[in-house]
Structure formats: C-alpha cells, structure tokens
C-alpha cells in the first residue's frame, strides 16, 4: 500500500508540479491589446502558433504597463493609423510576413520607414523537393530555393542541397523554416536581431548577386519609436502544423524544442518561441523616451560677428560653414515620393563628413529616415554634421496669385514650418499627402539644427504684386522681430520669422539663428547692366528686419544663392569685371560678393553656389565657369575657386549645390525636348540642371576607353568582313562599338530612330543609297567627329526657326533631301545690354560635336565629357539619349514628326536601326554594315531593349568630390 501511494504521489508530482510551477510563475508586465485578442479569437487557424505562445506566456487583455499589438496580415490605412496613434502607453508592435506586402505604395513606404526596412520585392522559399512546389519549377527537382519578384514578374529556381543559414545571438544553424521569406534591406544593420544568409554554395551566392538579391537579409528587425517598439519578422515564423492541447505546464516549450528536432515544426519551437519571448523580455526592460519642454530658454548655435558659433558643453566654438545642399530626388523617383532611404542617408552622411564638410542644408520636410540617420550618425561620430533647415513655400500658389498674403498660401506655409519645428524635436506624425514626405518623426535632432532658412527664391512678379496689393502696410512690430522701412513683402517675411520663433519657444522653449532665402534676382543692389528687366525689377532687403529681446541672443544672417554665370549682368558688368580677387585675378563673382557684403548690416551665408558637370550647356561665363559642358574635374576646380572667393570676401561660408544629381529637373533650353512626366527614369546628361551633384547615379555600363572589356558577343549587331558593329545601352547613353577600323578610315555610323522619316541618301556619302530613312549620322573622321541630323527632324531649328521665328529655318518641310546638319542648342535669345549699349544676337553652340577622351572614371586620364575613344582598331562611342531626340528612352519614346504635328509631337517606337559606312579620305565607300548591294545599303540591323520603370543606377563620387574634400580640409 505504501509503495502504491508513493508511486501515485510521484506520478501526480510529475504532472501536477509542472502545472503548479507554471501557475506560480508571474505573468509578464505586458498584455494583449483588445484588437489583437479579437484577431486571435476570430482567426484561430491563421494565428494558432501566436495564440498558443501568448496563452503559455499568460498574456491576456488585462491592464498592464505595456501592450502587445499584432498587426494583421492584410493591413489597411485605418488599422495602421490606429496602431501608431500617439499614446502614453508603452507598446510592442509585431508584424510578420506578408504584412508589408502592401499594394498601397504610400502606406507601404510609411510602414517600411517605421519598420526600418526597405523591400527589395523579392521573396524566397526553401524546399526539400522542388517538385512539391506550388509554383511551376520547369523540371527542377530535389532540394532547392525559389525566388519570386512579383512586380518584375520574375522567378528564379536554384537546385542546391545547401539550405539557407539562420543566424541569431551569434550562432549559425541550418534553416528549418519552410515558408516564404520577405527579402528586405535594413536601414541599419544594428537594428537586425536575426539574419538569414545565403547557402554555403558559391553558385547560389553568385546567382543571387547577379540578380541584385542580397546574400544576407534580415529575419527579424527591431526599431524604437518614442513609446513604441516595432518588430518585423520577415517570415510567418509562428506557423505550426500541430500543437499540444495543453499549455499550462512549465518547461513544455523547452521539451518540445528537443522532441521535434528537425521535424516540420522545429523552427517554431527552437527559434520562434525563444525569440519572441526574448523580444517581450527586452521590451519590459525598455524605457521609452519623452518629448519635454526646456525649463530655461535653450539654444545650441548663435551668430557672433561674421561667424557661426556652436555650443560644445560650456564653451562656444567658431565654425566656418563648409557644406552641401541635399535635395529629395534620386534616380527613378520624383522628390515628392520621398524615396531616399535611411540607409542611403546614413551612407551619404559618412561620405559628406569624409569630404571634411560640417553642414548640410535641406529645403523642406524630409522623410523620417533622414532625421533618424542624422541622429544615429551624430551620436556615433566625433565630427558632427549640422543642419540648416529650410521651410518651403508653395511656389505654384505664389506665382498664380502674385500675393504672399493669399489665405491658402499662408495656411500651407504655417503648417510647413510648424510641422518642421515639431519634426526636429522628434515630436510629429505627418499624414501622407501626395508629393510630400510623411510618417512618424521621433528622432530629436534639435541640437544639430543651427539655423532656419525660410522660403524660396522669390519670384519678382510675386514680390511686386504683393507690394502693390498691400501698399501702406507699414512696419511689423512683434515680440522678437521688428522692421524699419519694410515693404509689404518684407513685412510678411518678418511676420513669419516671428511666428516660427514664437512657436518653438512656446512648445520647446528653444531658439536658433534665423534667415530667409534670397538670390541675386531680388537682392538689395541695383544692376544697370542687366539686360532682362525681370532680373532686377524689385529688391527684398534683409536689413529692414531687426531682432528684439531673446532672439538677439542667437542673431540673424542673410542667405543668398549666388552662381557665377547668371543673371547676365555678372558676365558683362564692367565694375564687377574689373574687381581683383584674392589671387590677383579679375573676378566678377568676387566683385559682386564684395558689393553685396558692403550693402548688408549682418553676416551673409552663401546658401547655394554650384557648377554642373553636364554635357549640355545653358550659360557661358567669361572665365569658363559655365553652366554646363564642364567635366567633373573642371566642376571641382571651379567650385574650389568660388568657395575660396566666398571666404576671401568675408562671408560665413558656403553650401555647394548639390550633393547628388537630380534627374527630375529641367533646363530652359532642353525642357521642350523631353517628356516631363518621365524625367526621373533616365539620366539626361544634356540637361545641366540634373548634373550639379558631387555624386552621380549613372551606371556607365561601358567605360568608353577604346578597349572592349565591357562588351560581350551578345552585343554584336552584325559582322561584315573585318568589321564588327555592336550596340548596348544604359539609362544615360546608347553605346556603339566598331571593331576593325584603320586609322586612315572615316566611320559614319547611321541611325534610323523614327519610322517614315529620314534620308535615303546623304551628300557626305557619295554613290550610295539606303533602304532605311537615316535620321542621324555620327561622322567620325580623323581630327573631328560630330553627330549630324536630318534637317527635317532638327528640333532646334524647327522650334526657334519655324515656331518662334528667332532664327532662319534650315528646312522647308521637305523630307528626304539628302542633307544633314550640325546639332545646336540655344544659349541666349537676342538681348539688349544697357551698359554696353549694344544688342547681342541670338547665341547658340554646337552640342553635336563629339569629344575624344577616356570615359573610365578609374583612369588617371578620365574625362567625363568624353564621347568616344579609338585604340587598336576599336572605336567606342556613347551618345546621350536626348542627343538622339529621345523624349524618354525608358519607354522608347522619341520626338515625332515636327512638320506634321509640331513641337509637342512624340512617337513610341519598337526599335532603332544602326548601320556603318567606312570611307577613305576621298569619301569613297570601302565597306558597310549591312553590305551594299547594287549601290544600296540593305536594311540596317536593329537594336531594341526592354522598357523600364526603375532605372539601373550606381552611386559614384565624382572627381569634383575629391577636389572639394581637399578644399574643405584646408579650411579650419
């Protein structure tokens, strides 16, 4: 009997004690939100793994310090807004795949920003036998991986015995998770809790790299946001086939992790369970941050004399501004899409700091990743980057109403600067609006914002209109700002500077130096030598704005955008042109800066100065500091000269425009050539406004250097005798290669770009006709080379000759004349220069002239303006898409029939024809591709390509970056 009782007690102990231990264990100080509990109850099949875990961990909906919210797999905007709404309660948000597979692009981007990840579009699944796949595997079998990219409609199947690797807590093990995984890139590696890595198979890694798939990608990413922690699991790791009916037993999960070994549910027990438990435990210990108002008035920067000073502990350090402007555009995106990622910003900040810069300027609200990246960068680097933050005014409204006091303008402007003030303090949630950045802003960078630069380059007609509509406004008198002798527009500026200061003091008890944007067109000087009335019609005078009370502690400064080539008076003014600069040279830029500084009662920052490294040109300067047709080296040397001039004339410093190239932009002399809706999707080296950056996005698929290392057999169009003609392309250029040329020979490369047009004969190529209509000829002879165009198709002569009647047209509207003409762009229309008392005729230049040189950025003889090179019988040529009159190469859209349909005509083509004529010095034809039959060139070989929406792009620092790196490094 005693033995029976003992056995019974032992058995009872085995089953009862684990239950009692489970019962005695206190629940975590975290509970499920009501919506999460409801979701688990209503969807037991979908969330059973998570529900079992939460029951085992004693999580219910009771009151607690922290709430856990599980995001639904199909997330709506309403649900998302409800989850991230401002709350005082600490919250753990958990999302699993496929929650981030959101069709709404704006919502997807907002969630990705919050999650600190960026979707690549790829998903992957690991199979023990590919034959069991739910997708077609094209005969593949055995173990392997399937990668799918829905948006690209692409599938990659790889047979491999090696599984993915799962890495957590420094330990690596073979992956046992058997469902789809979202392949993302993190904004920062330190936010990744666990990783997936490519199999130990070099072939798999090579194929992933070729397709642009990262060989290591997050399994779990965590990010903290004030009172919320967000966890994204890139797979549905809670997925499980079977679960015990009981859960109230301590240690049951640990036992199961051993029992299941490598069975189908192993990942749930061995990985998901302890991983989520660890995340919850860390959340319990985590202390949220709070936004507080300073008890005493705070400021971290000030204007002293002619310099900025930045607080370093209890001391103030004098700073010369060495900086860059950062726009919101990148390859493939309009700026309003706010597409630059936190990871990209952080990388840029590292490069900017390595350039020896100390400041950056932004113009408006940036995406949340900008502020998080800056905070992270400055908290982990000894040398900080400081910010001049702009506050944008809606330019279109100002130009439409010609009145800054327009009610809608003021409403939008006030929202802009109040949002920005809250944003820099990490205290804002901005709702999505098309064309603007939005999201959760919880990174406090207020210590690093050393000045406000309010507004934009003011449209003169708007300033005049505002002054006329509100004449008699008088002077402004505020708590922190007053005016003396202000115009109505200057009153408006003072009023908003006051509002900015008051708002920040009221909410955060903090101030910083203030300024507003100005430019040469609305400076306070008179320019009698300016030929265009609108460029010197009205002044906006910073001197009339004066500070009062506490704002005097930090001071104000004037901000100007000053470029060396525009307005035109900078090129012709005799006084400025006679000024001798710091190098003992005549320098109209220095002359203007000298006069501008003398006229001001406050220090001045040159908030923009720049030179584009573009092929296309818009303005010329007497010293060669031109707006366009500048190499990267010339860009850098000119920027160096301008910056040294700025400092020599006693300015606070300068901000280079700009950090990155901006493909969405336009220039007045090429804006009629392209499709404005498609500008960001290709690189237009002919439009200088797109190429001001120190960093390029161009892939340069072929490094034009006369070698054939960048080419393969698949690029060959046709061979004829010793000659081979090849073609390829990227987002910026069409590339041509000719093999087999002799030094004494002339190559004429033929292009048929638009059907039913072009010449079937050419006066420069005698005794031959063409089956195709030829629209362009690249005529490459020793000592000179140029691209020529059929006059019927010449946009320049049609626009300015036929439409605007500023020059003589060269075509009478007759097709197939056999003539070809040089390609020109306009530089200046006819103008009268009052100081010179002369009228200058219509100015233009030949943009079709081709330059020989080395186009390889790695070469010591690199010239970014190089169009072609020839070595050892190999000719390489690159032609910008716009030079071939493509409105949009990403859609194969060209300028259409001008004579028939006018300057807005366009046509989408399927392909282009490319041919080759080789002649001797007497223009006798020696050889052709395709072959000549009975005096006629047969049909040209064709070249086509797939359309694209997201262009290939590669970040590359230009030569100008390294020149400015040394220039800034020499300044202390």
TrEMBL record:
InterPro entries: GH. This is Uncharacterized protein. It comes from Paenisporosarcina cavernae.
